[in-house]
Structures are given as structure tokens and as C-alpha cells.
Amino acid sequence: MNAARKLRPKRAAARSRGAKTGGATQPQPLIQPNMLVANADMASSTLTRIRHDHSVISETRYLNCLFSESNFEGSTFQGCGFDGCIVENASFRGVELRNCDVEGLVVDGINVGELLKQLTGR
């Protein structure tokens, strides 16, 4: 066996992540509350009814994604990007933005990024 073949990772067998119920498998969501998400990269994705509540999301990039009916209550986002994203019908209760680039951030038709620039002079 050559060295290159030894270093190649083995392909994992397909497994169901769901719970068995009478022969049928019920799928479980990949994103669940109280989790750590790190170094993820999502582009042009639709995430509906996702619960990010009380989770830590770090160094993750969402590009042109749609978040619909999602819960971000009490979450922490560190070093994340949300360029071109739309969030609708979501909860941001208890969420703080610190040291974030909010240029172009629009909340219910109000350009918050421009408003903050005018208020702070930065």
C-alpha cells in the first residue's frame, strides 16, 4: 500500500441520525439549542425554524442566507459574518452586538448602520 493511500481519510458509512419509531426513522435537526458552532461556512442557504437560543456561534460565515422563524435568544456570535442575509420572524431577545460591522444593517425598514454612524460620528 502506498503512503498517499494510507493518509487518505476513510469514508464514513451513511448513518441515520434519527430515532427509530416502528421501522421508520424520524430525522433530528442538525442544529439544536445550547450548542457550539465553530468555523462553519454557509452560503445561499435557507434556515427555517432553527433554534440557536443560548448557543455560541464562533468564526462562522453566513453569506446570502435566509433565516426564517428562528430563535437567537441569548446567543453569542463571535467573529461571524452575515453579509447579504435576511432574518424574518425571528427572536433576538437578550442578544447583544459588540464590535460588529453593522454597515447596511436594516431593522424593520430602518437602516441601523447609518443611524449609528450618524449618532456616533464613526
Automatic annotation (TrEMBL):
<dbReference type="Pfam" id="PF13576">
    <property type="entry name" value="Pentapeptide_3"/>
</dbReference>
<protein>
    <recommendedName>
        <fullName>Pentapeptide repeat protein</fullName>
    </recommendedName>
</protein>
<feature type="compositionally biased region" description="Basic residues">
    <location>
        <begin position="1"/>
        <end position="18"/>
    </location>
</feature>
<feature type="region of interest" description="Disordered">
    <location>
        <begin position="1"/>
        <end position="29"/>
    </location>
</feature>
<dbReference type="InterPro" id="IPR001646">
    <property type="entry name" value="5peptide_repeat"/>
</dbReference>
